[in-house]
């Protein structure tokens, strides 16, 4: 073993010490990136975690969070036994119970609701990476009330992308890092797609490619970008449309690309007052019509030999007029109101900077065209001898999507990418398998079961094509779902509205909830708007002394703030102790050149009486006799989650994992279950990857080789036409409904806002909160940035990460500090229309002049996470959430609108408007403070000195 | 009586790090991975006291400092600056050590602490102009970057992994390891190409580690590129360019 003592004279150093007894390769869960990790084990303990060099996501590197996995795994905040509440909700008083009692109790509560009225169960999961199981379970149970955290995260980005071109950023696609010539990154938290973005930025630096960061705050990725656009929050859409204005004015759009791959030439009916005004003109077979510029006739799009026009006025067979989408689009964006000059005062970006960036985009796209000599065939059968690329790429996430205008802003960004012809072309944005998946092959939302005890007929979440796909009661107005997703409040709520569940259940609008079942969702703290209010709602009682929200079941691995509000706590394992699948049926991890999926497996054995939530869910499913979870002999259909991963089939031959299917593991994507599948994953490093053939690597929206490969590998069931939707007809249908021209139509209260916001071409409107109040009582913006070294609330229990981010100052531009008389470390009241908090100030110039910011979710409630009651996270860490309401201020219209995007219901976190004043703080603590709750776990050790036993 | 430790005669091999400030995003991956490796490696453990309490404080061999720089005529910038022992050629921490615990290896230039000889007096930390040494709050001996001496020669690790943990893990590839005594090494060539510099040369410590400076940022008033065709000027009527674009497509 002592391979080498090396050193000068009398100073030998052991340079080849034993490292580990075994290396087990699995998948990280320190954030949502899902990197491959090598877990080194020594004496049965975790010695070291490093990135897996073979893994498609991180290629060997590992971020701070992943590298702190040891401290997460051995965290003193880990729960160790099922808990039954003994004190009042929120007190943290519990008694430990056995699993059998816990499961019998949960099955009793859930079974009673299912027999009586299944919708009275709200099952919402937070940062769940097993949504294909949890959604299926909820479907089998029969409640309409299921979703994960997308509604308060980034549904605008996902939904706008899927509706527009069948993809979006992050797991839907990636930048072509090897070929792009210009990269623009908008509003990205520093942990979103963390390692791939850092690897990519590094590659761009190596290649000498310019990066432009559009972000109110110049930290992280924006700090290393070549250029910073210090945009005002909520105005990104206007900035993007000003660029579009410049490009159209200069003719810098890819006309060939628009004709081939988009609906730019489709004719839009121009018949003011008609029920189909603004819809596409179609032939008897429903095919959209175009104006042929050779014959001047109106013909079906895609017919052989047609040369569609992009402007002009066509006369339809019935004598009515129609105009190509592109003409409408060009007229709209050429309007001087979209010019760089007109938008500068709102965006905070000078006309010169906007105009130059537009010119740089045009130059990179058209003067630096990238060509790959790879022949390919399109869906019309036309053979192309090469792949032409427009090497300008974009990435964006929550910064632009978490606004009440986020859907349209994301649409605007996608429109820009399409106009320059860069989507899935060399050097642009590239789809990652299984994408593209346009709404033609996406599900519609499904309503409640026909009767108690029956499953839903399909998945809860989906993509409505118009008002007829909404989930409304017979009155045409009352939402079916507790979160009001797919109602007039949020018609395209593709990820649900988890942030509204508790508030709606509390006011019984549209109805009350008997069992609230949550997984990994810290709703009593950083995952809710109006945190103090939500804590109260969870504990409020009715006149009879019963809790307004009947029963609360919660599963988490750690003693988070939410635990104290549960009646029954089901302790989960850590990520190193359980099976998981990173499934193509869920949020995939493919790279542009390969389809991929992965597993977690128990690389260490739990030393506590805990069970993986997914296995518990299957056990409950069996106890409740849910369809698909009970075997013919009456026993459980699946032994545990691992067994489900291997044997469950969503469709014949399609299961959670795509790799090594078939009796002998010889099949990919489609194939019968392989009992040996997990072993094959483990042998292969915990993941599966298959390369996409060269001919199928670009133009996938129209690439025959890709489509056939995707069908062959079970990624889709049929070849699908994916015409990019510059003009989004489903939105126009909602406008028609709001105009009262088609049924169902929204109640009068909703009509004006739907008419205004649901424009079929992307538009910008001011964010709702303070939109009309610029410069008024709340003149400034306040936002959060997610630090690279911390993931939501989970990191604070981590002995190492909390030394990096243990408290959260509010970073305030110096000019605002001067005006308010604030110096570094002074205390200030930060006040919104909803309330005020007291925080500590740090001056900064690297931020938009009207904006202040802080790190996200550093503040903690005393008594949670095994932290001391006087921890810096409690005394000097804060949540902006306290001053962000889940409801917008009353406007005198009798409504309290949700603080969300009106289209998707995405939580509008970053719309927040504030004012700031100096505060006295003799006690030097943030406010509000909450009475410390009782810890549900034993006190943490004072000292950590991990690894001492291995010192040689 | 122990005497002040002397430095070895300059060796040719000078192992060290080259850190690229142009791409460091300040993510702390290097610091945490360093801590994770080294708390179970050479000189382990790296203790944390009051780990879940009011004043958590632990030993780190590498820390990231963040500076905000505001040029007079350009927007403010943020620079992330990772800092660990620079393995100086004229290492004051070595010559000041009263027990000989601190020493610099002749064969590769790595500066180490022999913990059995360290009395925890802290003189070396005072002498180091970079503040790169940390007293372990439990062991009361001095801890410092070992350049992962238990990795870089470790025959139990695959060749490709015989680099410091911070280099292996850096997601932005901002850290490079090699022999800065060899002018032809990859790291030396990087330093030459990018104007790599010594941290605080005035301290006279002749550090082995080098930093690559951030490249100049684009100013908002950067001139616009010439567009390939000035079509806007030629347009007649509503999108005159569109007719010509369509004609070109045939």
CATH arch. level architecture of the domain at 83-157 and 444-571 in chain A: 3-Layer(aba) Sandwich
Q: Quick one: CATH class of chain B?
A: Alpha Beta
CATH topology of the domain at 83-157 and 444-571 in chain A: Rossmann fold
Strand order in the largest sheet of chain A: 7-6-27-26-25-8-9
Rg over alpha carbons of chain A: 28 Å
Largest sheet of chain B: 3 strands, mixed
Supply the helix-strand structural class of chain A: alpha/beta
Total DSSP E strands of chain B? 11
Average predicted local confidence, pLDDT of chain B: 92
Supply the number of helical segments of chain A: 25
Report the uncertain regions of chain B.
none
| Interface with most residues | A-B, 113 and 95 residues
DSSP helix fraction of chain B: 10-25%
Order of helices and strands of chain B: EHEEEEHEEHEEHHEHEHH
Over all CA atoms, what is the radius of gyration of chain B?
Answer: 25 Å
Helical element count of chain B? 8
Query: Widest sheet of chain B: strand order?
Result: 10-1-11
Quick recap:
Helix content of chain A is 24%, strand content 16%. By secondary structure, chain A is an alpha/beta fold. Residues 1-7 of chain A have low confidence and may be disordered.
Provide a descriptive summary of the structure in words.
The complex is a heterodimer of chains A (952) and B (250). Among the domains of chain A are: 19-62, ADC-like domains (N-terminal domain of TfIIb); 83-157 and 444-571, Rossmann fold, CATH 3.40.50; 580-606 and 619-706, no CATH class; 780-919, Barwin-like endoglucanases (Beta Barrel), CATH 2.40.40. Helix content of chain A is 24%, strand content 16%. Chain A has 25 helices and 37 strands. Chain A is globular and about 80 Å long. Chain B is of the alpha+beta class. Chain B has helices at 29-38, 92-95, 123-127, 149-152, 165-169, 186-194, 231-234, 240-249, and strands at 15-20, 48-49, 57-58, 62-69, 77-84, 102-104, 111-113, 134-135, 142-143, 175-179, 210-212. Chain B has one domain (15-212): Alpha-Beta Plaits, CATH 3.30.70.20. In chain B, the strands form five sheets. Chain B has a three-stranded mixed β-sheet. Chain B has a two-stranded antiparallel ribbon with strand order 2-3. At the A-B interface, strand 2, strand 5, helix 1, helix 6 and helix 7 of A face helix 1, strand 2, strand 3, strand 5 and helix 4 of B.
């Amino acid at each position: 073993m002592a391979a080498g003592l090396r050193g000068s004279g009398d100073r030998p150093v052991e340079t080849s010490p034993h490292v580990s007894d075994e290396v087990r390769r699995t998948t990280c869960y320190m954030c949502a990136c899902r990197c491959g990790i090598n877990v080194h084990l020594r004496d049965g303990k975790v010695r070291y975690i490093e990135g897996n060099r073979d893994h498609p996501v991180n290629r060997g590197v590992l971020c701070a969070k992943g590298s702190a996995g040891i401290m997460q795994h051995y965290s003193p905040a880990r729960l160790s036994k099922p808990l039954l509440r003994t004190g009042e909700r929120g007190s943290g008083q519990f008694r430990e119970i056995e699993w059998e009692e816990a499961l019998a109790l949960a099955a009793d509560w859930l079974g009673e609701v299912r027999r009586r009225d299944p919708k009275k169960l709200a099952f919402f999961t937070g940062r769940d990476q097993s949504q294909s199981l949890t959604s299926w379970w909820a479907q089998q149970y029969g409640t309409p009330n299921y979703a994960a955290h997308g509604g308060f995260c980034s549904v605008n980005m996902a939904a706008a992308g899927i509706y527009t071109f069948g993809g979006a950023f992050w797991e839907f696609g990636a930048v072509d890092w090897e070929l792009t010539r210009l990269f623009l990154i908008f509003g990205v938290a520093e942990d979103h797609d963390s390692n791939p973005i850092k690897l990519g930025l590094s590659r761009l630096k190596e290649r000498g490619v310019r990066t432009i960061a559009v972000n109110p705050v110049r930290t992280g990725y924006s700090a290393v970008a070549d250029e910073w656009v210090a945009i005002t929050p909520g105005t990104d859409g206007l900035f993007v449309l000003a660029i579009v204005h410049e490009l159209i004015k200069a003719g810098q759009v890819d006309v060939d690309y628009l004709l081939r791959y988009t609906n730019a030439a489709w004719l839009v009916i121009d018949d003011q007052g008609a029920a189909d005004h603004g819809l596409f003109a179609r032939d008897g077979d429903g095919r959209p019509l175009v104006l042929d510029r050779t014959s001047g006739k109106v013909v079906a799009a895609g017919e052989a030999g047609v040369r569609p026009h992009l402007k002009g006025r066509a006369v339809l067979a019935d004598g009515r007029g129609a105009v190509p989408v592109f003409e409408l689009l060009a007229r709209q964006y050429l309007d001087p109101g979209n010019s760089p000059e007109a938008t500068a005062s709102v965006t905070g970006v000078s006309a010169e900077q906007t105009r130059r960036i537009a010119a740089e985009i045009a130059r990179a796209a058209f003067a630096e065209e990238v060509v790959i000599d790879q022949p390919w065939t399109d869906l019309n059968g036309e053979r192309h001898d090469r792949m032409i690329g427009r090497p300008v790429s974009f990435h964006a996430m929550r910064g632009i999507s978490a606004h009440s205008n986020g859907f349209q802003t994301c649409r605007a960004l996608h429109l820009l990418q399409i106009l320059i012809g860069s989507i899935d072309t060399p050097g642009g944005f590239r789809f990652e398998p299984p994408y593209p998946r346009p709404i033609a092959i996406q599900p519609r939302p499904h309503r409640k079961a026909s009767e108690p005890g029956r499953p839903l007929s399909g998945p809860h979440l989906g993509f409505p094509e118009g008002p007829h796909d909404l989930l409304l009661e017979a009155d045409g107005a009352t939402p079916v779902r507790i979160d009001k997703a797919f109602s007039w409040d949020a018609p395209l709520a593709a990820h649900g509205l988890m942030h509204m569940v508790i508030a709606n259940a509390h006011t019984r609008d549209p109805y009350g909830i008997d069992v609230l079942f949550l997984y990994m969702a810290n709703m009593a703290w950083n995952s809710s708007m109006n945190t103090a209010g939500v804590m109260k709602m969870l504990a409020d009682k009715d006149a009879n002394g019963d809790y307004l929200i009947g029963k609360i079941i919660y599963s988490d691995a750690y003693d988070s703030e939410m635990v104290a509000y549960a009646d029954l706590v089901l302790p989960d394992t850590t990520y190193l102790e359980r099976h998981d699948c990173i499934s193509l049926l869920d949020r995939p991890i493919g790279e542009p050149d390969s389809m991929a999926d992965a597993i977690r497996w128990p690389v260490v054995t739990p030393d506590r009486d805990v069970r993986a939530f997914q296995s518990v869910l299957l056990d409950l499913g069996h106890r409740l006799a849910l369809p698909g979870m009970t075997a013919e002999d009456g026993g459980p259909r699946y032994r545990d989650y691992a067994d489900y991963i291997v044997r469950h089939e969503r469709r014949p031959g399609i299961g959670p994992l795509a790799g090594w299917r078939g009796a002998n593991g010889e099949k990919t994507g489609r194939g019968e279950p392989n009992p040996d599948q997990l072993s094959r994953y483990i042998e292969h490093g915990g993941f599966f990857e298959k390369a996409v053939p060269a001919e199928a690597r670009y133009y996938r929206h129209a690439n025959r080789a890709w489509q056939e490969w995707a069908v062959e590998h079970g990624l889709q069931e049929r070849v699908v036409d994916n015409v990019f939707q510059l003009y989004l007809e489903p939105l126009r249908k909602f406008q028609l409904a709001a105009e009262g021209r088609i049924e169902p139509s929204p109640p009068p209260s909703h009509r004006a806002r739907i008419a205004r916001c649901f424009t079929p071409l992307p538009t910008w409107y001011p964010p709702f909160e303070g939109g009309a109040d610029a410069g008024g009582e709340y003149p400034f913006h306040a936002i959060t940035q997610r630090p690279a070294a911390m993931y939501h609330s989970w990191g604070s229990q981590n002995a190492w990460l909390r030394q990096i981010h243990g408290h959260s100052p509010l970073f305030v531009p110096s000019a605002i500090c001067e005006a308010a008389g604030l110096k570094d470390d002074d205390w200030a009241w930060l006040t919104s229309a909803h309330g005020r908090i007291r925080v500590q100030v740090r001056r900064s110039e690297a931020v938009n002049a009207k904006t202040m910011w802080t790190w996200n979710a550093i503040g903690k409630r005393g008594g949670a996470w095994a932290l001391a009651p006087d921890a810096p996270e409690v005394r000097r860490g804060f949540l902006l959430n306290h001053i962000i309401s889940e409801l917008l201020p009353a406007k005198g219209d009798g409504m309290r609108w949700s603080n969300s995007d009106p289209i998707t219901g995405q939580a509008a976190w970053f719309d927040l408007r504030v004012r700031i004043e100096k505060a006295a703080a003799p006690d030097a603590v943030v406010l509000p403070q909450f009475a410390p709750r009782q810890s549900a776990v034993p006190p943490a050790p004072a000292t950590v000195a991990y690894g001492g036993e291995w010192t040689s | 009586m122990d005497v002040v430790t002397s430095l070895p005669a300059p060796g040719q091999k000078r192992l060290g790090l080259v850190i690229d400030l142009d791409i460091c995003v300040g993510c702390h991956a290097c610091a945490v991975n360093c801590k994770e490796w080294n708390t179970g490696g050479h000189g382990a453990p790296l203790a944390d006291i009051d780990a879940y309490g009011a004043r958590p404080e632990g030993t780190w061999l590498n820390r990231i400092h963040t500076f905000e720089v505001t040029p007079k005529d350009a927007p403010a910038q943020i620079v992330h600056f990772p800092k660990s022992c620079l393995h100086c050629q004229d290492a004051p921490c070595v010559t000041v050590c009263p027990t000989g615990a601190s020493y610099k290896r002749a064969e590769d230039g790595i500066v180490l602490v022999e913990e059995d000889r360290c009395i925890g007096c802290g003189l070396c930390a005072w002498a180091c102009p970079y503040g790169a040494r940390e007293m372990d709050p439990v062991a009361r001996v001095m801890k410092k970057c070992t350049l992962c001496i238990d990795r870089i020669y470790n025959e139990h690790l695959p060749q490709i992994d015989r680099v410091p943990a911070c280099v292996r893990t850096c997601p932005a590839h901002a850290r490079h390891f090699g022999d800065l005594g060899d002018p032809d090494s990859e790291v030396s060539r990087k330093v030459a190409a990018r104007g790599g510099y010594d941290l605080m040369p005035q301290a006279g410590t002749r550090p082995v580690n080098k930093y690559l400076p951030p490249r100049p940022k684009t100013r908002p008033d950067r001139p616009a590129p010439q567009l390939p065709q000035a079509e806007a000027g030629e347009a007649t009527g509503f999108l005159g360019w569109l007719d010509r674009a369509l004609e070109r497509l045939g």
